[in-house]
Structure formats: structure tokens, C-alpha cells
Design a protein that fits this description.
The structure is a single chain. The chain is an all-beta fold and 595 residues long. It has one helix and 60 strands. A hairpin with a 5-residue loop joins β14 and β15. The longest helix is centred in the last third of the chain and has 4 residues. It is globular, with a radius of gyration of 25 Å. It starts with a strand and ends with a strand.
Amino acid sequence: MRMIVLFVAMAFLVCSCAWAQDFTHYYNRFSGGGQAVVDSHGAVWYQLGSQMIGFDPAADMTTVLRLPFSGDASIALGAEDAVWVYYSNIWRIRDGQMQVFMLPTGTGKALATSPDGTVWVGKLKTQTQEYVLLRYENGAWEEVDNYPSSRTPRGMCFELDGTGWFGLKEGLAKYDQGEWTVFDYDLSDLSDMIVSSQGEVWVSQGWRQHIQVFEDGEFIREYKMSDGLAGAYPGPMAEDTAGNIWVVDSPISRGAGVSMFDGESWHAYNTLNSGLPSNVVSDVAASPDGAVYFTTACGLARHKNGLWNTFSGGDNCIVNNDVWSVAVNALGRAFYGTCYDQIGYYDGASWSQLNNPAGGLSTICDICFGADESVWIASNNDLRVWHGSMISYRRAGTGGINLDNTKAVCLDDRGRIWACSGGDYGGVACYDSGSWMSWAVGDLEPEPRCIACDGDGRIWVGTEKGIAVFQDETLVDWYPEYGYTSAIACDQDGFLWIGFDRSRMGLLQFDGENELAWYSMDDGLPSNWIKCLECDAGNNIWVGTGDGLAKFDRTEWTMWDIDNGIPVNEIRDISTAPNGDIWFATPAGLLCLES
């Protein structure tokens, strides 16, 4: 099996770093981490976008390693404190270096390490469409014989003697010295599985809303929310050195904290009674020194000897990395909105927040600014305006459309705010000096998704079934041929740029009546699935996709991805600043391309 050394560790103690092409990455190294492991020295490791973060709280030292991907990986701790990362291929982090093991081409994310030093992964081989279980032992990978499943394992865990337990499509399986035994249980929607110090196999099933406990393959008990779990959807689990079982409420429910079972009863912890900085917890990991770590939406938490510590990056940092929207006002303040209802801004010197840093349950989908410097905020819970204080609108006036699923918001040439909202009672709304006008979904047929104002004062609304055009408070045009419109922008020449997603039509330049040009991956786009568009002061068109960022200068395309200048491929929103800086919202924080 070929092994290649990829990267060497580098230590960072700040919340931003520079990338190629002058991109600056603003992120919170403690926020929004995925799966976590803790080594024998007490350092906790977790993935953050296209980075692996290693944090040693005793030394207050952070190690950052660049990954060649940005998708959610599986992580496990192996022998000699090696951290194993599985995403298509296997990466091993040891002694400050990363090594890659090239596995057979295919998909799969099941990963586990055994106390005997072996590493196990499940994978679907692309060429043969065969599901295999691979084991790393004595420096080589091999297929495990007689693997009894038609799918990859949903979970794996091991006893101290190396006996393996596997959550399969067919049930709970035991692997002991080369022999397989399969027990017929319904383990569909398995979230996590661990072996306790008592030899019990704990299996959490989020959508089935319970935990099942097995002993030697026999079901012995279950736990539900009615038994004391903090939330209805149990997810990742870990056992601490005292024998307590910790269970994270799955992100399915967007956050109910964590639960701890002390052998007799359950105890629930959340932001009100613990040091958790957020109730949205992604993983839990136990340390040999008795500490338990939690990766959350707003920072890293540690429980040790009954005390809580929170590591959240401090005030001079964004609060959460899962950023969905960004907009820069006339004063140069870059406002951002996250998946957890947080709105913050950067004034060029420090970071501030407009609301509770613990966050709620709504995603901030879009931000724009009123003529009076007010901040308008579209979320999937309401439409808000902040001008010293926050006002929330759930409906566009008496009898107007619902605004509880607002997708996008824009300012027209007359200083009016336009918003589009989804849902059964959504549509398009216009706010003008305290008065509302609105048009229901029934008037438009499809659900609105994006909105923009052109140089002639027309409002363009993109939907799944076409584009609607408003002028002088009237629906004047309808283009059903442009379905699955995901983004609209107007350039300085008055031309419209229209991006599409599920139809994968790419990018269209449009003069309001005629198609001027089509662009796709063949021309230089990183993907035909467009997420966002923006025109800068130089009349360049910026295109954000799920597979990278592109700029069109009217002559040629320039593209960036994690291989040549940006830390994550998914670009969700773009905004230009008065000084020429360009800001990008990503699931791994904010990017800024300085002018």
C-alpha cells in the first residue's frame, strides 16, 4: 500500500490566517468542530472545514494541519496517539506529520481503531460495486474475510481484547478471532456505538429516538427522552474514566445539549446549567485524565472533576464558522449571519455581535442595508431589521404573506426593501416607510428563492419554476424557462447574471429580454451548480459554487478551490466593500480578498 507524506504541522494562535492570492480566512478555531478524539496527553483533535485542529489546553497551544478536502470526515484515535482521518482515503497524523494511504477508489466513512492497534474502515469499491471491510495491521491493508453484510458498517467499536462489534444493515455483528456472528436487530439509522468498560455495547439511534444496550449480543435495556435524556435524538457517545456514559443530542434537533448516565440515572446539561457555549453539540470525546470534551456550534467545552471550562476564541473572533450570509455596508462594516441565528460584524479592527452569541434555531439566509443604514436580516424564522434595536416581522402587514421563511432581501432604487419568503403562505413583499405590499405564492405559482433589483428599478425574483419580474408594484413578466434560479445579480452595464442550481444550467448573461451568453464548467466555472453571484467595482463577476470560487473579468475565468488558495470549496454568499475588498461566506468561516 503506497504511503505519501503530505503536510507538516504548523501552529497558529490567532483566529485568522492568510491564504494564497491575499485571501484572509477569519474563523473561530474552537467553533463548529465535527468529530473529536483526545490523545494520551490530553490534546483534543477535531476537523474544522479543510483543517485538522489539535488543541492542548494545558499548554494553550493550537496545531493546525491543512487537509486536502473540506467534507465531513470520520476521525479515530489509534496506537501511539496517531489520529486517523477517513475521507475517501485515509490520513494518519503522527509526530506532527500527515501521511496518506491510497485506498481502493470508492465511497464510505465508517472508521474505528482497536486496542490491538488495528484500524478498520468500511468502503464501497467503485469498480466492482462491492462493499468491503478493510483492516490495517503490521503496516499493510487487507480485506477482512467473510464480511457478512451487503453494505458498509453503520458503526464499529472494539472491546479491550480486540473483539469487534459492528452495526450492519443485517443487525448487530460480532467479530472474534476471524469468526462472524450476526444478531438480528433493527439497527437502522444508527448514530453511534461504543463498548463500555462493563463490556456492554451501547447503540444510539437518532431518528428512532432511543439508545439500545446489548450484552454479548443480547438486548438488555433501552433509554429514551422519557427516561431522562436531554433530547429526543441521541447521537455521539463516550465513556469517561469514572464509567459515566455521555450522550450528545443529535444535531438533527438543532440542539438540546448533552446527557450523562452515572450508572443509575440520567443528568441533562445545557447552556443554562453548565459551561456549554451552545446547545448544538456535534461530538463528545473522553480524555485519559478524566476530562470530557464537547465540540459545539459556539466553542469547545470541557468537563473535568465536576467543573466546566469553555474555549470560544475570545471576543476578537467570529462566533461561529457555519456562515451563510455576508454583506458590507457603506461604512465598510462586514456583517455576517450563521446557521445558528447569530449576526455579527467586523469594523476593520474588532468583531461585534448584534444578538445572543449562544444562538437560536434559525439560519440567517441573507443581509442587506436600508437607505437609513438599517440592517435587514432574512432568516428561516422571520424578517428582521436592526437600527439600534431589533424588530422582527413574521408577516408582511395585516393579511400579508408570511415572512417566517424569508430566503432573500434587497434594496431597490427608491429605498424600499423587498423580500421573498418560502412556504405555503410565502411570496414577495415590499416594505416602504412602514407600509407593506405583498404577493402570495399562489399569485406566482412557485416558491421564491432569490431577489435582485436592476438598473431600471425592476425587481427580479428567482424561483424553482421560473423568474418573476415586478415593476411599479406590478408583476409584469414571467420567464418559466429559467427554473431552478438560485442567484441573480446586476452588473454596472445593466445586464443581469442568473445562476442555476438543480437544473445545472450554469450561468446566464441576460439583458432583460435576450440571452447574451451562457457559461458552464467548459468555460471555467468550478461547477454548474451556482450558489451566489456578485459584481465588483471593476465590473468583474464573482461566482460562488459548492466546488470552488470563480471570477470572470469579461475576458477569462480565474478559479480558486482548496488546492490553490481557499480553505473550503463551498461559497454561500459574496459581498463587495467600498474599499474594494470582497467577502465570502463559507461553512468554515469568512474569507476576505483584500483589494
